[in-house]
Amino acid sequence: MRKRFGPYFCQPVIAGLGDDDKPFICTMDSIGAKGLAKDFVVAGSASESLYGACEAFFKPDMAPDELFEVVSQALLASVDWDCLSGWGGHIYIVTPDDTKEKILKGRMD
């Protein structure tokens, strides 16, 4: 039997700064179709619970430290509800002047 797309699928999240230093975020599905958004995008096995957490915590025009706190809380709240997720994540805060990576540790079971 021939495998059409191969055994692995991924759903990348693309984030950065676009024109006039405005945030640009999008995601792609397994065949490469873009999903553009103005507020947030989610991906991964905890996508369903991430949507709910992000909708609850997100608000426009947050400062970098406030955005890190919101991303952290949404990620931790979501992976606790999904048995396939966990271990934390890498959070990148991108500003016109700097890019900071922070490692968030979650449950390890």
UniProtKB/TrEMBL annotation:
Alphabetically ordered keywords of this record: Proteasome
A GO BP annotation: proteolysis involved in protein catabolic process
Q: Which InterPro entries match?
A: Ntn_hydrolases_N, Proteasome_sua/b, Proteasome_suB-type
Q: What are the record's GO terms for cellular component?
A: cytoplasm; proteasome core complex
Q: Does this entry carry the keyword Ligase?
A: no
**Keyword tRNA processing attached:** no
**PANTHER family attached to this UniProt entry:** METALLOPROTEASE TLDD (PTHR32194), PROTEASOME SUBUNIT BETA TYPE-3 (PTHR32194:SF10)
Record-given protein name: PROTEASOME SUBUNIT BETA
Q: Which organism is it from?
A: Salix purpurea
